[in-house]
Each structure stands twice: as structure tokens, then as C-alpha cells.
Design goal:
By secondary structure, this protein is of the alpha/beta class. Helix content is about 35%, strand content about 25%. The protein contains eleven helices and twelve strands.
């Protein structure tokens, strides 16, 4: 059933990434603080679809999220990611400086491609392996980078729904990520995964956005307890910056129909900066 209540989404803009993220999170604190305080297994899912520095989640972005959430919890935080290539995530994390964050904040790292998994039927013909660390979390935080390729947009929802699907080995048979991306039922499959791996907090770090595989400085951040609504506002913010209309992904509407989030701007209350 579609949600009846409006979703709250915070939008911050500015020249300092850390400040943008912290401002946006503070504006949605009331909507997440209760659940966050009561959660035992908190997972931050960064976005390393591209491994170039400006095209992936930065340490500053994760630091801002950590500084915010640690006001409400003292639980050990897990950073969980799996590269689209299936390669070991540890060297990439090390080069990006995440090992220093681990030392400073006592973080636990999980390579989702090497995690235990549950095989989930996303359609009659397709079962996909989804990482248990994500499925077992009671508070998933999607920290995503806006990515636009042609008319295809990827952000907080896909970061979890696609990013939590395993790729192991080099053969097509063990590349569940590609099975999902190339599926004719891709949008419905993403919505099915979201039913069991719904983020409790979405942070769209649009300080840099990826547009047709090139990084573009866009200087915004979106935060919300509704990942679907966060994507919708991020689409609008990026489109305004590019002075073009970006079509919403069909999976956002399917998520909305399933009661996962709000996919219409008319059903979203944006606080902070104006779109």
C-alpha cells in the first residue's frame, strides 16, 4: 500500500562537503533518532560503484555521518561495500583513507562480495544472493553519490539494492550484480530487494556528481529517513543544476506502490534549501 504521510527530506548546499552533510542530517534528526538509538546492528553502505575519488563516497562524507549518529548510539558501526568488479575492497578502502577512520572510530569492515548471503527470489525466473550483513542490519545507512548516465539515474536506493547483491569469481554464473542489472525485470527486482533491505537513513552526497562518467561539482546534500524520497529530491536538485529534466527511475514508483517510500515531489516536504 502506498504511504499516505508526506516524507521529509533535507536539502543543504554549500562549499564544504562535511558541513552540507551534517546540516542535512541535523534537519532530519527527529525522524531517525528514536530508531537509531534502539538499533543494535548499524551498517553504513558507502558507494564505490566507481573507485575514482570524486566518483565514490569520501571519508569526509562518512566522517560527517559518524559524527552525527554517534550522538544517538554507542554501538559498533559496520562499513559494508562490495566492488562491482568483485575485487577485494580492502585495498580501495585503504587508498581512500578508510583505514584511518576505522582506527579513529573503531569501525568494522565487511566486503559484501565475500559475505554470507541469502538467495532471494526477485522474480519467478531470477534468484539473487544478497549479503547477510545488510539483511540482518536493523539500521541501514545508504551514503550514495548521484550518478547520471544518459537517462539512467542511480542513487541511495540502488546503492543498497544493487550494491548488496554479490559478485564472486569471474564467471557470469557468479556475477549476480550483472544478472540484476541486465534483467528485463530490473526495476521490479530492485523494489523486491528494497522490501527486505530498506535503508533507515539515506544520505545523497552531491558535493560531486557523476554525469556520463565524468565528475561534476554540484555542492548539495540530501538526507532523509525515506530513501525513495531522497532519490527524488536528489534527481530534482541535480536536474536543476544541470538545467535539464531527469526522468525518475521506474523502480522508485514501484517502491512507492509497495509502501517503501514516496516517489512524488507532491508527497515530499523539502526542508532547508529550496529546490
Amino acid at each position: 500500500m502506498p504511504l499516505k504521510q508526506k516524507a521529509g527530506v533535507a536539502l543543504a548546499k554549500g562549499a564544504v562537503r562535511y558541513d552540507n552533510i551534517l546540516k542535512s542530517l541535523e534537519m532530519v534528526a527527529d525522524s531517525i533518532s528514536g530508531k537509531l538509538s534502539n538499533s543494535m546492528r548499524i551498517v553504513i553502505k558507502p558507494d564505490f560503484f566507481f573507485t575514482k575519488q570524486r566518483m565514490s563516497t569520501s571519508t569526509d562524507a562518512v566522517k560527517a555521518v559518524l559524527d552525527f549518529i554517534l550522538e544517538f548510539t554507542n554501538k559498533k558501526i559496520t562499513i559494508a561495500e562490495g566492488l562491482p568488479t568483485g575485487s577485494d575492497i580492502r585495498p580501495v578502502f585503504h587508498l581512500a583513507g578508510f583505514h584511518e577512520l576505522a582506527d579513529d572510530y573503531g569501525l568494522r569492515f565487511v566486503d559484501l562480495n565475500r559475505d554470507d548471503y541469502v538467495a532471494i527470489a526477485v522474480s519467478k525466473a531470477l534468484r539473487l544472493r544478497v549479503a547477510k550483513t545488510v539483511l540482518n542490519s536493523d539500521f541501514i545507512i545508504s551514503v550514495a553519490v548521484p550518478k547520471l548516465s544518459g537517462s539512467s539515474f542511480s542513487c541511495a536506493v540502488a546503492n543498497v539494492a544493487v550494491g548488496s547483491v554479490l559478485r564472486t569469481g569471474k564467471s557470469a554464473a557468479t556475477n549476480d550484480k550483472q544478472k540484476l542489472i541486465s534483467s528485463k525485470n530490473y526495476d521490479a527486482a530492485v523494489a523486491e530487494i528494497m522490501k527486505v533491505a530498506k535503508p533507515s537513513l539515506a544520505v545523497v552526497d552531491g558535493f560531486w556528481s557523476v554525469v556520463n562518467k565524468k565528475s561534476l561539482e554540484t555542492n548539495f546534500c540530501v538526507a532523509s529517513a525515506d530513501a525513495v524520497a531522497a532519490d527524488v529530491v536528489a534527481v530534482a536538485a541535480l536536474g536543476k543544476g544541470l538545467k535539464r529534466k531527469i526522468l525518475k527511475q521506474k523502480y522508485l514508483e514501484l517502491c512507492s506502490l509497495a509502501g517503501i517510500g514516496q516517489s512524488s515531489l507532491a508527497s515530499i516536504k523539502v526542508v532547508g534549501e529550496k529546490l
